[in-house]
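Researcher: Next sequence.
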Amino acid sequence: MAIRLNEENNGKLLTIHVTGKLIKDDYAEFVPAFDRLVRQHGKLRVLFDMTDFHGWELSAAWEDFKFGVDHFSDIERMAMVGENKWQEAMTVFAKPFTQAQVRYFDHAQAAEARKWLDEA
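Model: Next structure:
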């Protein structure tokens, strides 16, 4: 699986690390895990780590779009950590698809991203 999840702070913070190129099947495990955490904890804070991420296959991009629509209001704050300009641009693209506060951090600023997610 190109998506690795790590629950922190008793499930209120979800670290999502994506690598390589996502395919549709990656969402079959990711979405139910995310749904379970939302049912248990309500709105989540998300650290979306895109280190070594190379994008989506077309079918996976559609799954990602559906996920965004279905979970429009389930994320309180999302820190997107990446290493490329196109990943930074994704932050701007993602904002209309969520009610979350969204910020981009360069990979070297990963500690700052975590600090921002922990703020009240």
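Model: Residues 3-118 form a domain with the Rossmann fold fold (CATH 3.40.50.10600). The radius of gyration is 13 Å.
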